[in-house]
Design a protein that fits this description.
The complex is a heterodimer of chains A (about 500) and B (about 45). In chain A, about 75% of the residues lie in helices and about 5% in strands. Chain A has helices at about 15-35, 40-45, 55-65, 70-80, 85-110, 115-125, 125-140, 140-155, 160-210, 210-225, 240-250, 255-265, 270-300, 315-320, 330-365, 370-395, 395-420, 430-455, 480-505; strands spanning about 455, 460-470, 470-475. The chains are: A mainly alpha (about 500), B mainly alpha (about 45). At the A-B interface, α3, α9, α10 and α13 of A face α1 of B.
């Protein structure tokens, strides 16, 4: 297949497709309008009155956590490397969803509104603000903004920047108006759209390409050699170091701000546990479907059924080829849904960080609920502007995401889990403050060093910093930020415990 | 190798049936919440 080059995607839409896409956008805006002015308290607006039941939680958890990175990223790995896209990269997330199902009820019992609440109540204002800053950084969702812009550009044929702005305006409008209720209700529609169309696309695409026998033949033709690595669970380019690095970024599941917001918004601890257990097979199937559709795309190229797409557009290409006319609108609406359901959730979370977690405790402790809602709405606008700006500033958006995940895990994971699950250790304010500070500033310094002193590897698509020590050269990848810094965070926590113990032991100095 | 056909079709079916069941349960829930006036506010 050396004579073929990746093609840019273009999709032909008919009248039914247009109606579906426009109806979908109108419906999202209507939901926002419906919930406007229905909020009596900040909990109504920010935590859906703490009344989210299992079905709503399943839908909003699944759709929020699966954005375009899954849809395009996982199918890209399926296209280039095969089923390792599921077994090597995605399975660790699935395991952590199950783990989270059993941890989530304890978080729900804490009665917090954000994880910064728990960290602040346990360790004080300093730790709270640092945790909120890193949650804000994590939640500025530039990748989804760019993804929405890409789909808008594809559908409406507008310039990319117009696509980004137009899609951002829609998401901001219904989130601004309706808060978490609008967010969750739109998530539910989006969840239904994105999963069912992907399932149908997989069945139709797999059947039309001729099942595994034809897929094997297509893969042989595509790669020009034995393609067995495509069907090997750990085939492809994975090395143990990479598996560990990607596995560690999955730890973000354990302290994900949007995840935890939904856990706090659950009607009961049992509702959220059930939602996570029901959602896990759907999450896993979604990842597997993306991987298998990538595989179908590679085989279809080998069989000469489609032209070779850009790898991250493999899924769109194969779906637009196999899905019946009139259903493309459903699929594009579902792709838009995947990105919007993620973007809206993080807009709300990051606005909450700015107003509820930072502004209120530092400057206006007595802020009433009405003012909190009004200011959180302004926070949504600020967060949207930052997300869109970052989308245009950062050339390599994947690198930004790795930084965001690292800063979240390094700053929040240790102090939060000690606060919630280790009662004997949680009354040490200094320890929590030191740990969050080391995690946050350590990660920032690490990434500044890797990005300024390292260079971008085209082969691995990541920043790598080569260090020569005692005549040996070591490669430090930007993905290593988590396992290099977490030990220092743990150490900082223990140092804080020791210092505070010592201080309390001095006569006349009172502990907390 | 034929097992992959089963895996692919089964995955597709799970993605259609599972979310549809969740969506139906949600609609029933929605009707109940609307009747109680709890949708969009605490009802207080």
């Amino acid at each position: 297949m050396e004579d073929t080059v990746p093609r840019e995607l273009s999709i032909q839409l008919n009248a039914v497709d247009w109606v579906v896409i426009l109806a979908y956008i109108a419906l999202m805006l209507y939901v926002g309008y419906y919930f406007h002015r229905r909020h009596k308290s900040f909990d109504d607006y920010f935590l859906a009155s703490k009344g989210m039941t299992t079905p709503l939680l399943v839908a909003t958890l699944v759709s929020t956590f699966f954005g375009l990175d899954t849809l395009f990223g996982t199918s890209e790995i399926g296209f280039m490397e095969g089923v390792v896209g599921f077994f090597g990269y995605a399975l660790v997330y699935t395991v952590l969803y199950v783990v989270m199902a059993f941890l989530a009820p304890r978080f729900r019992q804490m009665e917090g509104r954000t994880f910064s609440d728990i960290i602040g109540d346990t360790y004080g204002k300093g730790a709270r603000v640092i945790a909120a800053c890193c949650s804000f950084l994590y939640s500025t969702n530039s990748m989804e903004m760019m993804g929405m812009g890409f789909i808008f550009t594809l559908v409406f044929g507008v310039p990319f920047w117009v696509g980004v702005l137009a899609s951002a305006v829609i998401v901001v409008a219904y989130t601004y108006a309706g808060g978490l209720w609008a967010d969750a209700v739109t998530d539910t529609l989006q969840f239904f759209f994105m999963t069912v169309t992907l399932g149908a696309a997989l069945i139709l695409g797999w059947r039309d390409v001729g099942g595994i026998a034809n897929i094997w033949a297509g893969l042989e033709a595509y790669v020009g050699e034995d393609p067995s690595y495509y069907l090997h669970p750990l085939g492809g380019y994975l090395t143990p170091g990479l598996i560990a690095a990607y596995g560690l970024t999955a730890l973000a599941v354990l302290c994900e701000p949007a995840f935890l917001q939904r856990i706090f918004a659950a009607r009961s601890p049992r509702a959220v546990r059930n939602a996570l257990l029901i959602g896990t097979p759907i999450w896993a199937s979604y990842e597997l479907a993306c991987t298998l559709l990538g595989l179908v795309a590679a085989a279809a190229v080998g069989l000469g059924m489609i032209v070779e797409p850009h790898p991250n557009q493999a899924l769109l290409m194969v779906v637009s080829h196999y899905i019946p006319a009139g259903f493309i609108g459903f699929f594009l609406a579902s792709v838009l849904a995947a990105s919007m359901s993620t973007a809206d959730s993080y807009l709300l979370v990051s606005a909450g960080n700015l107003v509820y977690d930072i502004y209120r405790p530092l400057l206006r402790p007595g802020l009433d609920d009405r003012s909190l809602i009004r200011l959180t709405r302004y926070g949504i606008l600020v967060s949207a502007v930052v997300s869109v700006a970052l989308a245009f500033v950062f050339e390599r958006i994947m690198g930004l995401w790795v930084f965001q995940a690292s800063v979240l895990i390094n700053t929040v994971l240790v102090p939060l889990y000690i606060a919630v699950f280790v009662p004997a250790l949680r009354r040490f304010r200094l320890a929590g403050t030191l740990a969050t500070a080391v995690g946050f500033f350590g990660t920032v310094i690490f990434y500044v060093l890797v990005t300024t002193l390292g260079s971008f590897s085209e082969d691995w698509a990541t920043m790598i910093w080569e260090i020569t020590l005692l005549g040996r050269t070591f490669e430090v990848w930007q993905e290593y930020g988590i396992f290099l810094i977490i030990p220092f965070v743990l150490l900082a926590y223990l140092v804080g415990v020791a210092l505070e113990w010592r201080r309390r032991a001095v006569p006349g100095v009172q502990g907390r | 190798m034929q097992g992959w056909d089963v895996v692919a079709y089964l995955t597709g079916v799970v993605l259609i049936v599972g979310p549809t069941a969740v969506f139906v349960a949600y609609l029933l829930e929605l009707r109940r919440l609307s009747r109680r006036g709890e949708l969009g506010g605490s009802g207080r």
